[in-house]
Amino acid sequence: MNPVVGIKNAIQKIPYWPGHLFSIIPHKYKLGRQYLISSQEVTKYENASSEERYLYLIKNLNKIVNYAQLNIPFYQDLYGKELIEIKNLSDFEKLPIISKSQVRQYSKQSNGAFLLNTGGTSGKPLSFYVDKNVWAREWAHMHYIWNFVGYKPTNLMATLLGKNIGQKSFRYNAVHNEFILNPYINAKDIKNDLIRLFKKYPIKYFQGYPSSIFNFYKELEQVLNKAEKKEIVKNIKCCLLSSEYPQSYMIDYLKKNWGLDFISWYGHSEMCILAYDNKLSGQYKPLITYGYAEEMNGTLIGTSFHNYDMPLIRYSTDDTIKSKKNEYGIIKTFSITSGRSGDFIEDKNGKKIPLTSFVYGRHHKIFEKADFIQISQKEKGKASIIITFKDGGQIPSREISKNFDLTNIQMEFDFKFLKNPILTKSGKLKLKI
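Below the sequence we write its predicted structure tokens.
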């Protein structure tokens, strides 16, 4: 096990007393010098002129392209032998866009500090490597976004992101000073535990997928009285909405019925693009120090400046957008026209489980092998996982369950194999079919 991961796992098991004291230690000490560097950089360039941001962009695009061409066989084959120089965005836009299927093959040649995976926005699994400083940069940028709503790392948070914590109602995680809530148990069945939690501890922020938080409060609405409802939300200053596009009906419900406020951001596991919407206007502003976001034929394309272990350059996210650009052609804001949304599956007890939690929150081994994953449900408590191997490959039936984390979820799953994924009439590939 990576020693950093080992230390993190050990800290996660520390109870609230004395674990919350860990939050007092500044992140520049917990995560290292890169956290401080990234924090200073994001503040500097978010307040810089358009010209300064453009020069920063060209410098970093040149740097990652040159490195990839000189050191990565995939890009040497893709770009050819003549060294590319990026003088302007037109030069960069001549480079080919790469797809998830290309990156899946490329990842087999790579190595790095951490191996991560993603279920993909539309059921396309992918494993990829990142460097040792990735979490320091990630948290520097996330804290910049959360600072818009007054967040400080010493503030206590509740989190609902799909983490499998067994049969516990919640668990304290000292690494992020948060109580992780169990998304696989109906909130109404553990309402007394939740009331005690929110009553005892000053939880100021609630982080989660919009569909998970919406579902959490929908379940509690059925069983809480007026006083209990007030107890659950009395200290919450803001909800931090992760990953999914927050659907308007969910936001309207949480505002009207629970009086909650929000901030939202767009990010993806491949860590090329991070953008925030601090006004819930549907317009996301990309952070240029995180990576470069561009629009090509309505598709969001991302380039990471920092991952030298496995560079992703002009990588297609498969999300479709509309963007507004500045005078240099750099995206100022973008809106998502299709992408991740809050689809559910329903377990035997009627508990609605957001697919974002099931897919993103559990790191299934199948992501390293399959080309596409899709899920179908026709009756409560039963669902089909449809796996596509484009090369005709297959996993023996006795081994298939070993490639998924299906514990602590009240569902019966069966598995189907296809040579091609199931598409909509318009040719789109969706996670839930």
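The first helix runs from residue 3 to 12.
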